[in-house]
Write a structure and sequence with these properties.
Blueprint (H helix, E strand, L loop, with lengths): L2 H11 L4 E7 L5 E7 H10 L1 E4 L26 E14 L5 E7 L11 H14 L3 E13 L3 H6 L17 H6 L1 H13 L4 E6 L5 E6 L2 E2 H21 L3 E3 L15 E6 L19 H13 L13 H4 L12 E3 L6 E4 L7 E4 L8 H17 L26 H10 L2 H6 L1 H19 L4 H7 L4
Parallel strand pairs: 1-5, 12-13
Antiparallel strand pairs: 1-2, 3-4, 4-5, 6-8, 6-9, 6-10, 6-11, 7-8, 11-14, 13-14
Helix pairs in contact: 3-10, 6-7, 8-10, 11-13
Length: about 450
C-alpha cells in the first residue's frame, strides 16, 4: 500500500469530521478553508475548486487591475487545486485538526503562476540534472503585546514590543515569556515544522528560529507553515508576531536567510564539498555561486517582494547591499559555510522574513542551476572583512520600483521561471509599488505640513 493510500485510509478511519486545506498565494500567504471529510475525500479524486481570485488580488484583498491570468475580465471562475497528500499533518493547537496543502500544478489556468507549482518545476530541473536539493529557512520576527483589535484601535501604528531592549541570545528574555517561547518550539515541532534552534535576537521583542535541513519542497512547506503557525500560536497569548522586513528605522530588520546544498540522487554525497578546492569548495559550488551572483540583480523582487523589503537592505544592518560572496562573512549576499563535508552549504542572505519561501527558494535554486548549466566561472573575489566598504562590487537596486523594472527589462527571469509566471509576478510588483506611491506618509506630513 502506498503512503498516499495509507494517508487516506487513516483519515477515513479517524474520528475527524472536517479537514483544513490551504494553498499559498503570490505573497506567500496561506489561503484556505475548512471542508467536510467527505468532500475532502472526493476532492482527492476530482480536485477541489478555488475561486481564481486567490491569484487576482493583493495581500489586502484589493483586486489587481493589470492581471491577465485572472481579474474581472475572467468572471473569477473556480480553478482546480490538487491536494498534496504527502503534506498531511495535524494542528496541535486546534484539536489535532487534519491539515493539507494544495497547489495548482495540474490547473490549466493557474499552474504557471502558482508559487508552489513553480518550485516543483525548478526542483524537477535539478533532479533531471542528477541533483537532490536540500534547503532550510531561518527567520527573525518581532513580537508585540497586541491583538488585532488593539492594533486597529491604534490605527495600525506604535505597537508595544513584547520586551524592551537589545537582548540578543538572551536567556533572561526567553524565560520572561517562556510559556509562549516554549509553545513555539513544542507545537510547531508537533505540527511537522522541525525547529532546530530558537533564541532571542537584537531588538525589542525579536526572536529567531532555524528550521531543520530537508528536501527543498518540504523545506518550503515548513517555512510557509512556520510563519502562519507562529502567528496563530502568538494569538493564543494575545501577541502579534510580525515578519515585516523592517518595522522600525532604529532597529535591525528581519531576515529570511536560505541555507542550501546539492546532493547526489541517493542523498549520500554533498556535491558542494571539494576536498582539494579553495575553502573546500567544489567546482560545482563555484558555478552555483557564480549563477546566483549573475542573476541576483535581475530577480531581486523574488527575494525582496515588498516596498518595505528595501528598508532592510541598507549598509551596516546585517543585510546584503551588493552582489557579493565570502567565506563565513555575514556582510555579503552569499555566505559559504565550510565547517565539515556534511554541513558544507551556501547561505543566501538577501531574503527578508517577508519573502514568499516558495519563490525565494525557487529563485535560489534556479539561479544556481543557471550557473551550473552555463559553467559560469566565479570571477568575483570573496570579500575579506567588511563588504559594506567595498566599492568594486555591483550594488543591488534600492527600491521595489527599480528592482521590478530591472527584472522586467531582463530576459533572464523568463528563462529561469517561464514567461507566464514572470509576466504575472512583475505585474503584481508594479501594482504593489503603485499602492505605496499614491499614499501620503507620516514622513511627508512631518516634513512639509507646516514649514513648506
Amino acid at each position: 500500500m502506498s503512503k498516499n493510500s495509507d494517508t487516506l485510509t487513516s483519515l477515513k478511519n479517524s474520528d475527524a469530521q472536517k479537514v483544513k486545506l490551504a494553498i499559498t498565494d503570490i505573497d506567500g500567504i496561506l489561503r484556505g478553508k475548512l471542508i467536510s471529510k467527505d468532500k475532502f475525500l472526493k476532492a482527492t479524486e476530482d480536485k477541489l475548486g478555488f475561486c481564481n481570485v486567490v491569484f487576482g488580488w493583493d495581500m489586502n484583498d484589493a483586486v489587481y487591475d493589470n492581471s491577465e491570468v485572472t481579474g474581472w475580465h475572467t468572471g473569477f471562475p473556480d480553478s482546480m487545486a490538487t491536494i498534496d497528500l504527502s503534506s498531511q499533518r495535524h494542528i496541535p493547537w486546534n484539536n489535532d485538526l487534519p491539515f493539507f496543502l494544495g497547489d495548482f500544478s495540474e490547473s490549466d489556468d493557474l499552474k504557471e503562476v502558482c508559487p508552489r507549482s513553480l518550485l516543483r518545476r525548478i526542483t524537477s530541473q535539478a533532479e533531471d540534472m542528477g541533483f537532490k536539493p536540500k534547503f532550510s529557512n531561518e527567520f527573525e520576527w518581532f513580537n508585540f503585546k497586541e491583538t488585532p483589535q488593539s492594533l486597529k484601535e491604534k490605527g495600525g501604528v506604535n505597537p508595544t514590543p513584547l520586551t524592551p531592549g537589545m537582548f540578543g541570545y538572551s536567556i533572561l528574555r526567553s524565560s520572561q515569556h517562556h510559556e509562549y517561547f516554549d509553545e513555539l518550539f513544542d507545537l510547531l515541532t508537533q505540527f511537522g515544522v522541525h525547529i532546530e534552534g530558537l533564541h532571542t535576537e537584537t531588538g525589542d521583542g525579536v526572536y529567531e528560529a532555524c528550521i531543520a535541513y530537508t528536501d527543498i519542497m518540504d523545506a518550503a512547506d515548513q517555512a510557509v507553515l512556520f510563519k502562519s503557525g507562529v502567528k496563530e500560536i502568538a494569538y493564543r497569548h494575545e501577541i502579534i508576531a510580525s515578519f515585516m522586513a523592517k518595522w522600525n528605522t532604529n532597529l535591525p530588520g528581519c531576515s529570511g536567510h536560505i541555507h542550501q546544498s546539492l546532493w547526489d540522487k541517493k542523498s549520500e554525497k554533498n556535491l558542494f564539498y571539494g576536498e582539494q578546492g579553495n575553502h573546500k569548495m567544489s567546482e560545482l559550488l563555484e558555478h552555483y555561486i557564480a549563477g546566483q551572483l549573475h542573476c541576483l540583480p535581475h530577480i531581486l523582487p523574488m527575494y525582496a517582494p515588498t516596498v518595505n523589503s528595501y528598508k532592510r537592505l541598507v549598509e551596516g544592518s546585517w543585510a546584503a547591499t551588493s552582489a557579493s560572496w565570502g567565506v563565513e562573512n555575514r556582510t555579503t549576499a552569499l555566505r559559504v559555510i565550510n565547517h565539515a563535508e556534511d554541513s558544507m552549504r551556501l547561505e543566501t542572505r538577501v531574503p527578508g522574513a517577508d519573502a514568499n519561501p516558495y519563490l525565494s527558494m525557487a529563485a535560489s535554486l534556479a539561479s544556481g542551476l543557471y550557473g551550473i548549466k552555463h559553467k559560469l566561472s566565479l570571477d568575483i573575489e570573496p570579500t575579506q572583512g567588511n563588504e559594506y566598504e567595498n566599492q568594486s562590487t555591483r550594488k543591488l537596486p534600492k527600491t521595489l520600483a527599480d528592482a521590478t523594472q530591472q527584472m522586467k527589462a531582463s530576459d533572464l527571469s523568463k528563462e529561469l521561471f517561464g514567461e507566464g509566471f514572470t509576466d504575472h509576478f512583475i505585474k503584481t510588483r508594479e501594482w504593489e509599488w503603485r499602492q505605496f506611491a499614491q499614499k501620503v506618509t507620516d514622513w511627508e506630513l512631518k516634513r512639509y505640513f507646516e514649514i513648506i
